[in-house]
Amino acid sequence: MISNLIIRQAKDISRANEIANFSARYGVNCNGISAVSWENPHSSRRESGAFLLRELVRKINPACLNIQVMVELSAEQPDNVIVNYKKTWGLLKDDGINVDEITDKVNFERRGKVGLILSATGSICIFKDDVVSGLINNIDKLYFAIGDNVSKCSSVSNSEDWMKCVWDNDGVIFMLLCY
After folding, report:
1. Which pTM does this prediction carry?
2. Which domain holds residue 90?
3. Is residue 98 helix, strand or coil?
4. Which of 9, 96, 118, 157 is most buried when burial is the number of CB atoms within 10 A of its CB?
């Protein structure tokens, strides 16, 4: 159990707040969205991220068993046969992440400046700590969501539009900040 949590709030993430500069640091450019930060000052996101995420989900919706996930690879990938065949989930599997436990996987690719920008969506059982931890420990642009209608957003190919879709469908997004 974590007992030394620091809780911070932002009434509108588009304005200066005590959590983060969401636009500059995370590319989130939305008005009228509130945020709450739960921080464990004695632990990194890699050490306690999966546990903290599970506890937050259980506080909001104790009956929730699955969370939606959006991943976007940080670096552009080369437009070659291997990348086009494996796509996001295949490349992550090759990096040792247990993606076989992720359901409803969808891969996306779009043109970047020098290569391909790869992203993907899927659904994960909140109790699959090895899957959740594997994603948390290896991916910077990683977002989780819960809500009755957020599965509608599984076909949205980039993280900013995916977040807007989740919020438009009354969902809650979890972003693990820092490293």
Report:
1. 0.88
2. 6-175
3. coil
4. 118
